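Lab notebook, design round three. We kept the backbone fixed and only want residue identities now. Task for the bench partner: fill in a sequence for the structure below.
Input structure tokens:
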């Protein structure tokens, strides 16, 4: 019975379309239809790009000078994270009308388990369509959605018809859908892993399926079993809205190794923003800030700073991370991944009241 129930699971992955940039275009009619980059500015880094900008090859984490070179008419706007967070809460309130099983991944995407049809729309497709309609009408934004029987395929499907699209992959179509896609689009396969797979002759999901479990584990270690399952459309992970947190963090793998101090600092600011959003969403507090660094040769180090009291705010969290990063310079080699997290957590309700210092 458990296997049958698992196969009938209905999961939606909702992904907002160019979220930060779309909010800016919504709120400023003068930049609608124009190529827009959130962030950037002189010697900065692009945090998000509109679809009009992406046509010129502008993408997140790109230096603003490169973005401007590719798109001379690019409009830079300052990020407004408080606004993005408020809109995200509005969207999650819409989700909550359909299910209690909501697992946010970031401000602009989430998994929903709609196996139970709370509103009586008759199908997961109908629920996804109604959610997208309400986001369009109530938030004046567009969202793409993937509907399937597992999280992995639902996430692939939401990206399949972006922007403003809906893609439904039924259980009988799942393995063939995965087989048809390039592995570089798979969640969990980063640029370096994708390059390694290509050297091994693995370009599509179908190529990956030709490999045995022992062979994949020999090449990719513990990740090999994950690759073996997903290329067959197997993903048994549940949508978990109330996970106990041991730590809260965010990280980013770069398309190219970074070594310039200024660019790394800009990237860490962006990563800190994502991490702190998750801290607030989890409603936790913590005393230890941890920096994670993976170099171009895949060696990894962590550096931590612990406080006598809980880290009070985003500014203190970011400053601690930047201090840990600055202490690593000069770098022995380029960095391919940066992460920043909060550890030694407790529930906010258990945390002691914040004691404010006096400026002197």
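Proposed sequence:
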């Amino acid at each position: 019975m458990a296997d049958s129930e698992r196969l009938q699971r209905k999961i939606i992955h909702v992904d907002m379309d160019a979220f930060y940039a779309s909010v800016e275009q919504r709120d400023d009619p003068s930049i609608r239809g124009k190529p827009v980059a959130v962030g950037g500015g002189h010697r900065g880094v692009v945090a998000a790009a509109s679809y009009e900008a992406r046509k010129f090859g502008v993408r997140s984490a790109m230096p603003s000078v490169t973005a401007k070179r590719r798109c001379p008419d690019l409009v830079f706007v300052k990020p407004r994270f408080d606004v993005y967070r408020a809109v995200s809460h509005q969207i999650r309130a819409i989700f909550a009308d359909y299910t209690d099983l909501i697992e946010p991944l970031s401000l602009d995407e989430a998994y929903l388990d709609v196996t139970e049809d709370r509103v009586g729309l008759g199908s997961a497709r109908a629920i996804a369509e109604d959610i997208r309609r309400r986001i369009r009408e109530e938030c004046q934004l567009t969202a793409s959605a993937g509907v399937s029987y597992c999280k992995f395929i639902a996430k692939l499907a939401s990206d399949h018809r972006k922007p403003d699209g809906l893609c439904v992959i039924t259980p009988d179509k799942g393995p063939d859908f995965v087989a048809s896609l390039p592995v570089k689009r798979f969640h969990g396969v980063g640029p370096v892993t994708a390059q390694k797979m290509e050297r091994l002759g693995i370009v599509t999901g179908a190529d990956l399926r030709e490999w045995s479990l022992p062979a994949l584990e020999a090449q990719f270690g513990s990740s090999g079993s994950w690759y073996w399952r997903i290329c067959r459309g197997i993903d048994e992970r549940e949508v978990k809205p109330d996970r106990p947190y041991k730590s809260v963090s965010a990280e980013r793998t770069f398309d190219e190794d970074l070594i310039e101090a200024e660019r790394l600092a800009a990237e860490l600011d962006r990563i800190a923003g994502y991490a702190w959003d998750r801290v607030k969403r989890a409603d936790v507090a913590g005393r230890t800030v941890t920096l994670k660094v993976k170099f171009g040769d895949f060696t990894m180090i962590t550096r931590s700073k612990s406080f006598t009291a809980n880290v009070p705010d985003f500014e203190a969290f970011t400053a601690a991370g930047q201090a840990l990063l600055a202490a690593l310079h000069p770098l022995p080699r380029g960095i391919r991944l940066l992460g920043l997290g909060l550890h030694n957590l407790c529930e906010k309700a258990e945390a002691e009241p914040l004691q404010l210092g006096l400026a002197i």
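Keep this in mind before ordering anything: Confidence is low (pLDDT under 50) at residues 1-7, 349-360.
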